[in-house]
Every structure is written in structure tokens, then in C-alpha cells.
Amino acid sequence: MVDLLDRYGSGQFEPVVAELARVTDFDDLLQQLKREAPAWLDANGPADRDRRELVAATFALEAARADELYEWVWIQSQPGVAVTVMYWKPPPLLIEWGCQLMRAHEPPRPIERWWQLAALAVAQRSEDSRFLVGDIRIGRAGEIINVQDEIKHLDHVMKRFPAESRFVLAQGIARDRYWEDDALTAYAAVANDVDVGGEASMRLGALHVKHERFGEAILQFDRAETLTRDPYVIYLARYFKGRVLEENSRSDEALDEYRGAAAAWPTGQAATVSLAALLFRNGRRAEAHEQIGRMLAAAPNAFDPWREYVHADNRFWPQLIGRLRAEIRR
After folding, report:
1. How far is it, in rounded angstroms, from Cα 14 to Cα 106?
2. What is the pLDDT at residue 114?
3. Strand order in the sheet with 143-144
């Protein structure tokens, strides 16, 4: 562990990440980190302590990301009752370990904001809201009985950065599936925000679609485009609007929206397939074939915002980890 931290702190980021990809026992890695990191943090004296904390906390994020698609949480049903017991696996515990290092400073250091944004990106990639906001099945079958083990990471973050709009938006995203009223409130709270208002409106529109409130959905999708130039948000707003229009037999308008989505994000498979399918059904088979051919000629694993919708801020990971690594090099 000391060797890994030394190498990561010296800027050997990619070799260390490659080594993490080969780890098979992240429980052991977490225990080593807890056992050996405290002495390592102080090994170079007080002048280097803050930087070493950032190194260790960021290494923990990298480790969590390396393992999170394989394990995250274990939910165990209890015989004869409608409650469950939750056991965290190493990735969320690694994030929380790093978060505790960051939270030791009052007031928060400027670099902590970047670290917490990167932690959010890792957490949202897991597709599990429990880590961020707690039990998602309160009052329902499957409710968690060991509430003392909840982490509620966003509670920590919001106390330290109450004005950060991406964390407010994350509250809505975490609640979108199970607590829709709370999600609506969170989205509305940042609907006019200069940074996330467009995405909040797009996600609010998607919630309206789920309940077939198509008029309200279209208003939100149109509003999203007036609030952002982010191609990710514009693509999704146009794609979702196209689906609403197609569902309501407004094929010509749907075609325009699908074309607009494909123009905003040319490698987006969802919009291109929807466009080609609608063209095909309208008898424009050559044009449909052309659209699919262009899509297949692109990189087969190209990022599609629709497929990554649930992962939210994961799309910012390359920029965020780059910012943290640059601070470590200073």
C-alpha cells in the first residue's frame, strides 16, 4: 500500500490504475489503506500533509471506480419479514474513507469541491442511490433495518457545499426513481441555475413523460434548450421530445427532433436508431439505411447520453480526475 501511494503521489497515475484493475480482493486493499495510510500521511512532515491527504483520498476514488461495477452493496432479505439488511462492499467504503479525510478540514479547502464532484461521479456510476441519500424503500417492502450503517454521502457534501448546484441536482437524480415528489422539488430548486438549469429542466421533462404529462414534458424540453449549450443536455431534450411526439402521432415533428438530437451528438445511437426506424416506417428506406450505416461506421462503443442517463455526472470523470491529478503534481 505504501508503494502504491508513493507511486500515485509521484504522478504514476496510469500504472497504478492499471494495477488496481488487476486487484481481486478490494476488502484487503481497503484494510491495508486504513492500516497503513495514517503513518504515510505524516511521513513527509506537516508541509506535505495536505497534499498527501489529497493523494490518498484520490487513490481511494480510483480504487472504488476500479471495483464498483463488480461489487457495491449486498442486500440480504430476512426470513418471514419485509425488511432487509444492508452490507456495504469496498467501493462505497473507499469513497467514504476518502471523504472523511477531506471533511477533516474546516472550512473546506478549494480542492475538496473538485474531489467531492469526482466522488459524486463515481457514486452515480454505481446506479445505487442508497449510498447518496439512504434507504430508498422507506415504508415499503425491502426497507433496510440496519439504518445505523447508512452513509448518506450527499448529506455530508451538502453541509460543506450548500450552494453547489450540481449537488442539489444530484439530490433529485438520486430520488428520481423512488421519491418522485422529492425529485421534482430538487429539480425545481435549480431550474433557473445558470450551470445546471438546462439539465434540471430536461430531467424534469423526463419525469413528466413517465406519467404521460406530455404537454408539460415538451415545455420542459424546450426550456432546457434555452438554458444550456451543453450538447449532452440538448441531445437528450430533443431525443425525449421526439419520442413524445412520435407517441402522439406527430411523425414529421418527431423526425425533426431526432435529426436535431443526432446533430447535437452525432454518435448517439438512440436518436439515430429512432430516426432511422421512423424513416423506414414512412417509406424512406434509403435514407434510413444511410443513417444506420453512418452510425455503424462510428466507434462501436461511442458514448451515448441516453445509455448513460442514469450515470449522470460520470461523464465528467475524465475532467475531474484530471483536475485532481494536476493538483497532486503541484
Report:
1. 32
2. 98
3. 73-77, 83-88, 143-144
CA distance 195 to 185: 17
- In the block, cell 434548450 appears at 225
Domain boundaries, the chain: 191-308
Give strand pairing partners of 74: 87
The count of residues in the chain is 330
CATH pick for 191-308 out of 3.40.190.10, 3.40.720.10, 1.25.40.10, 1.10.730.10? 1.25.40.10
| CA dihedral angle for residue 134, residue 139, residue 144, residue 149, rounded to 10 degrees | 40
**38 Cβ contact partners less than 8 Å away, ≥ 6 residues apart:** none
pLDDT in tens, 94-120: 999 999 999 999 999 999 999 999 999
Residues of the chain with pLDDT under 50: none
Q: What pTM, to 2 d.p., does this model score?
A: 0.94
Integer Cα distance of 98 and 67 in angstroms: 15
Q: How many other CB atoms are found less than 10 A from the CB of residue 323?
A: 17
